[in-house]
Amino acid sequence: MAEEELPGVLILDIGGTHGVLEDLAALLKKHFHLITMKEFLENKEEMSKKIQSIFVFECRPTIDRELLESLPNLKVIGNSGVGVDHLDLKMISSFGVKVTNTPHAVADPTADIGMALMLASARRLVEGNVLNFLGPSYFFGIPHFCFDRDYLSESIFGM
């Protein structure tokens, strides 16, 4: 399929501090003609007809009434995050536009971090790590000369 035949997707930008990651943009290019917000604003008349979807990455671009009114062929807004709190769903649906998100995208990493935090808390890992690097006098007021620092840092005391 030629690039012109692909449906247009509006994104904020590619790369940079707020743009879509370059790897993700490469994946999107396989299925969509990417139109950045800058390209859209420079040529609203022509670009507005081509855009059928908006890809929201890290809450950008901002979806407001003015943007929706300028996109007559918009069918779907794809949100790259889990939540849609930053989108006015009632207003968007009044334009006949659907909203999607990725609810299970971070389920496994969130569970992993949760387990790691529980284990770290139960085993006082953070305190042990600080103690290992700063020495027991940091927590207990014990004079530093009472413990051989090299011996402590090589032991499992900090674990």
TrEMBL record:
Query: In terms of domain of life, where is this protein from?
Result: Eukaryota
The UniProt keywords, alphabetically, are: Oxidoreductase
As one GO molecular function, the record gives: NAD binding
Q: Name one Pfam family in it.
A: 2-Hacid_dh
Q: Where is the D-isomer specific 2-hydroxyacid dehydrogenase catalytic domain?
A: 22-113
User: Which Gene3D superfamilies does its entry note?
Assistant: NAD(P)-binding Rossmann-like Domain (3.40.50.720)
Report the GO terms under cellular component.
cytosol
Q: What is this protein called?
A: HPPR reductase
Source organism of the structure: Sylvia atricapilla
